[in-house]
């Protein structure tokens, strides 16, 4: 794959060792915010989520589900865009400092490595519908969980349904 198209954003995409090293070098006083998702087709709901995350702290780290985990979560026809393309698009956004692609179905390990002060979740999640393991991991680190209201009628699934008609 030709990655020349992503040169400026590429440096924001980190593997696990890079994420751990990046997090370790931050001054303790810095407020780190994390969010995560598939980010398959970027839409206004994603932008709103990331902008809300940016307002919560000084650094925003985004966990992007790998292609394999998206398939398990969304079905065999997803993702539409590859994990590298999705990560590059997210990394190119001004609101985002670091992007990490993770293979797990849940963001628990990502959260444990990112060690955020705030975890921002969007869509129609409630504290009760968040994955229990993710919620416990965040709360166990004294991480504040911030739920962002969804942007009405906007989702990758809705976009794909509309495109199919």
Name the helix and strand elements from N-terminus to C-terminus, one letter apiece: HEHEHEHHEHEHEH
> How big a fraction of the residues is strand?
15-25%
Query: What portion of residues is helical?
Result: 40-55%
Q: Categorize the overall geometry.
A: globular
Biggest sheet, strands in spatial order? 1-4-3-2-5-6
What class would the helix/strand composition place it in? alpha/beta
* CATH topology title: Rossmann fold
Largest sheet: 6 strands, parallel
For the record, the CATH class is Alpha Beta
Q: In terms of quaternary structure, what is this?
A: single chain
Number of strands: 6
The fourth-level CATH homologous superfamily is: HUPs
- Alpha-carbon distance between the termini? 31 Å
Overall mean pLDDT stands at 93
Could you list the spans in which at least 5 consecutive residues all have pLDDT below 50? none
**CATH second-level architecture:** 3-Layer(aba) Sandwich
Question: Radius of gyration from the CA trace?
Answer: 15 Å
Q: Could you say how many structural domains there are in total? A: 1
State the helix count.
8
């Amino acid at each position: 794959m030709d990655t020349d198209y992503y040169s400026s954003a590429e440096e924001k995409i980190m593997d696990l060792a890079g994420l751990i090293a990046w997090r370790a070098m931050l001054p303790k006083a810095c407020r780190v915010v994390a969010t995560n998702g598939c980010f398959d087709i970027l839409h206004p709901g994603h932008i709103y989520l990331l902008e809300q995350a940016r307002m919560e702290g000084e650094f925003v780290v985004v966990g992007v589900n790998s292609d394999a985990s998206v398939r398990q979560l969304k079905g065999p026809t997803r993702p539409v865009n590859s994990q590298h393309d999705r990560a590059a698009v997210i990394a190119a956004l001004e609101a985002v400092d670091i992007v990490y692609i993770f293979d797990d179905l849940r963001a628990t390990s990502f959260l444990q490595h990112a060690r955020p002060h705030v975890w921002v979740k969007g869509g129609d999640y409630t504290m009760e519908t968040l994955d229990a393991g993710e919620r416990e991991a965040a709360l166990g680190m004294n991480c504040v969980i911030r739920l962002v209201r969804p942007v009405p009628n906007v989702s990758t699934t809705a976009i794909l349904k509309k495109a199919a008609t």
